[in-house]
């Protein structure tokens, strides 16, 4: 089954094997905003045309100073030939005034024209090389990051929660097929990869094999299953957190290798039901799920002075104990006593100073 799955989603050319310069339209590293090469070329062509028109007007204004009686077309022709340094010699300045204008004004413009054309080529090549080197460095250095598959409503909320909990944007990579969504992610300082996460080579570009965790948040449940299978295939040690719309697909995500699955439709339905009966409970739940203000649910390592104590008697409001990767609720017998190495799941008060970093 896994072999057929790999064969189905394997592309003829593995993106991960492509040279870095071939990935410029796939991987985007956040940073200073740079214009595309075509924008740079178009802008400089406009500048060149303005210089050409300016010289043509000056030549035509002094048309009597040249070897022929110039029409405006002749003036444009002379300007183009002169600025491009072609110099056919069929039209030449003959009066002192025309020659002085050529020396003082047209010659510097000719030099600027050449710098403009050469500078366009150098700028495009330099920008392409810079971005390729940036991608190369990023692919070598990225470790223990979080990959978010899908930057829709769920993906954006997941990223907001990660960043509010202290994860730097440079440690989050977003994978999506929608350019507009990737533009939004890039504006938040996130690294983006354009492509379908159902393909292993796209996931490898996102560094899934070296990632700490992968958040699977596409819009369709079948896509979530395929992505989870592909991630687990190439990254056995990564923590996979997946979202599913319908509860009947929960077991598919679990069988595919997801460590944790969130049922979005049922969760929203429960919140709606609670809101009609006890709206204050919904308000408190939303507060707990918002890590940037009010109360939030957090996890910390047990202190040395807390070992052996009952978690109910600690200063924090403890909800559960995580022991050897297993969560025990506060009312379970295993959570009666705190042991060395345990982690406590507790309610934390978030102050605005914590959010602002002051």
From TrEMBL:
Q: Which UniProt keywords are listed? A: Ion channel, Ion transport, Membrane, Transmembrane, Transmembrane helix, Transport
Write down the membrane topology.
Answer: Multi-pass membrane protein
Give the stretches traversing the membrane.
41-61, 100-125
The record's listing under InterPro entries reads: K_chnl_dom (IPR013099), NAD(P)-bd_dom_sf (IPR036291), RCK_N (IPR003148), Trk_Ktr_HKT_K-transport (IPR050721)
Per the record, GO CC terms? plasma membrane
Task: Kindly list the places in or outside the cell where this protein is found, as annotated in its UniProt entry.
Answer: Cell membrane
Entry's Pfam families?
Answer: Ion_trans_2, TrkA_N
Top-level lineage group: Bacteria
Q: Name one GO biological process term.
A: potassium ion transport
The UniProt record lists the RCK N-terminal domain at 143-263
Main subcellular location of this protein, as a coarse class: membrane
Q: What is this protein called?
A: Potassium channel family protein
């Amino acid at each position: 089954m896994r072999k057929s799955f790999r064969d189905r989603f394997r592309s003829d050319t593995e993106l991960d094997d492509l040279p870095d310069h071939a990935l410029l339209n796939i991987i985007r590293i956040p940073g200073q905003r740079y214009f595309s090469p075509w924008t740079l070329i178009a802008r400089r062509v406009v500048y060149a045309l303005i210089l050409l028109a300016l010289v043509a007007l000056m030549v035509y204004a002094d048309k009597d100073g040249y070897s022929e009686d110039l029409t405006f077309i002749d003036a444009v022709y002379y300007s183009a030939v002169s600025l491009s340094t072609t110099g056919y010699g069929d039209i030449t300045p003959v009066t002192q005034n025309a020659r002085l204008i050529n020396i003082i004004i047209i010659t510097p413009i000719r030099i600027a024209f050449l710098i403009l054309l050469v500078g366009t080529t150098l700028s495009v090549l330099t920008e392409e090389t810079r971005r390729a080197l940036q991608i190369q460095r990023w692919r070598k250095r990225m470790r223990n990051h979080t990959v978010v598959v899908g930057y829709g409503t769920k993906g954006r909320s997941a990223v907001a929660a990660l960043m509010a909990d202290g994860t730097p944007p440079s440690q989050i990579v977003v994978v999506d097929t929608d350019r507009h969504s990737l533009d939004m992610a890039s504006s938040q300082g996130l690294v983006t990869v354009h492509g379908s996460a159902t393909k292993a080579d796209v996931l490898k570009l996102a560094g899934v094999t070296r990632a700490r965790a992968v958040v699977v948040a596409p819009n369709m449940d079948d896509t979530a299953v395929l992505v989870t299978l592909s991630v687990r295939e190439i990254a056995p040690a990564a923590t996979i957190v997946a979202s599913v719309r319908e509860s009947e697909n929960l077991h598919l995500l679990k069988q595919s290798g997801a460590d944790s699955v969130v049922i979005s439709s049922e969760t929203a339905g429960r919140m709606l039901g609670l809101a009609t009966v006890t709206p204050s409970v919904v308000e408190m739940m939303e507060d707990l799920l918002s890590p940037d203000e009010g109360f939030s649910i957090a996890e910390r390592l047990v202190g040395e002075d807390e070992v052996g104590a009952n978690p109910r008697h600690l200063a924090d409001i403890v909800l559960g104990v995580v022991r050897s990767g297993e969560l025990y609720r506060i009312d379970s017998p295993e959570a009666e006593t705190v042991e060395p190495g345990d982690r406590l799941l507790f309610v934390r008060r978030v102050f605005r100073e914590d959010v602002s970093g002051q």
